[in-house]
Amino acid sequence: MGMPLPKEYEDMQRAQLAGTDAKGKVTIPELRVEEWSVLARDHSVARKVFESEDLDGELTLIVPTVGTDVDTAEMSTEATTEASETDVDFEAEADSSVSCTVMGAFTRLSRKIPPQRLMKMEQKIGRLLMRAAGWRQDKWIFNNGSSPFNSMMNRVSGEHVMAATKTSMEDSDHRDWSKLIFAIDPNHIGNGIFVLNPTVFGHTTRLVDDNERPIYVTGWIQPQGLIPNSPVSEGPPSMLHNRPCWHSTTMPALVEVDAADTAFGIYFDPEFGTIADSQAPMIEQDDSQERSKFVRRLYLFEVFAFHYSQPSAGAAIKTAAS
Q: By C-alpha distance, which of 45, 15, 123, 49 is closest to 273?
């Protein structure tokens, strides 16, 4: 069984559960919700570019969406017949809802660390755990197929496949990246952003248009991730074809796309993506599994979901099939 929290914690404790419970778990002082929000944005590209929603404990995200077939919409002075629900192409319920999933990260701390010092380390521990959690969130949201929910590389319906002779990502030229932009629904082209692996983005910085002008905007904004002592997910976006380009190491790296029939980048309108949090991130201490090793185990838990409601507002770029 876990021991109750020391007396020194009482003034700082802001946790939902105080002391011990039947399973021997104890809760160390929590960061405030607004502090967790800052940490989440710092270490996750997805949380920078997509809207976040608080589900207040609910476990299912329902997103109101409509399809692209809205040609029958009319001004009131033009309508000749009464509009019906079929005049707007609503998404099926299965395409507009998704269940939350639980994600956890943990670390071990020596029992030599006194409780008072552990309290002072709270911010640092939170940052380390949130950095690990942020990378996993980006993996699930950008490039993890259809589990635990449809990721962007799997969800977008637009596509630009490079010419038959271009079987490696490094064969791409400025025309390919321009065609990717125009592979999404025309209504959303101007609001799109890129998400690429930094190694893939490095290739684009060497590309020029027909007039020998770089398609990467150099000298105007610092390349993301090159800020001293910062991870690649932090910092402002770079610019590619005058559109924001975010970097994430969860996307296919250069060595992974030196092959045919491989997707390696996406361009999409972020307005249609929603990250829903069922509950705020929580740190728990559980001694039950680590007591024999004389260490503490600290967990970070998040319960969240992601849904992209307009697949036509995004596209992936792929190498040729052969």
A: 49
